[in-house]
Amino acid sequence: AGSKLREVFDKINNLLSGKPVQTEGQTVSVTQHPQGLEFVCYKLAEKFVRHGEGEVSFHHDSAFPIAVVLSGIWELHPRVGDIFLAHLHKKCPYSVPFYPARKEGTSMEEYQRILGYEVHDSKVEEQDHFLKRMSGMIRLYAAIIQLRWPYGNKQGAHPHGLSYGWRWLAQMLNLEPLADVTAMLLLDFLEVCGNALMKQYGIQFWKTMFFIQKSYIPRIEAVTSSGQMGCLSRLKNFVQKCLQAEEIPLPKGILTPSFWRT
Coiled coil where (predicted)? Predict the structure, then answer.
């Protein structure tokens, strides 16, 4: 509910503003310790990324309420946004976007960690689980860049708006594609913020979609084995449908004005 989201936002904002906040039966304030504010910014940013790799990866619609709160907090407390990006880029290098190369002397285990895989006791997580987590984080990022907290002052620019999404897409299409990962991330990104990018960039956006269909999808196909075609097929269908309709559908779960009356 919109009212619940406002409660959450106000509590986080009050905490970061140095006001005393009630939590679990006690009153806390960042002024109680010289590094209190820095610690809270760090943990809060980390928690938002965890929401992406956890909650959003399982419930795609949850990207929007989480993103709108973070967007508003970022506007008022830029430090949280900076640390959020640092956590996000470390956990999901594809959000830069960047495909890290293996450097000489780096063990396979360490390299897999750099790529974003979770490694416990020399056991690497399953590919499906890895892709799901990366998907959740990209979806959260794609939601953040298009959303603004509706009760903010709206005077300044979005602290990390659509221009960053446009840049992400352009940089992504300049990278050599990876099997599995590239198709999934492009689809996630376009499903969540394709509609907003279309409205903002118009003809330039459609040229990019045409480029994806004619040039980039064949490049993904070239590195994809027959057992990894699922995501690529979904990306192909999505791009084809959008080009035929000359329209990108609104993402599922987007917050409508009526949501804020709940």
Answer: none
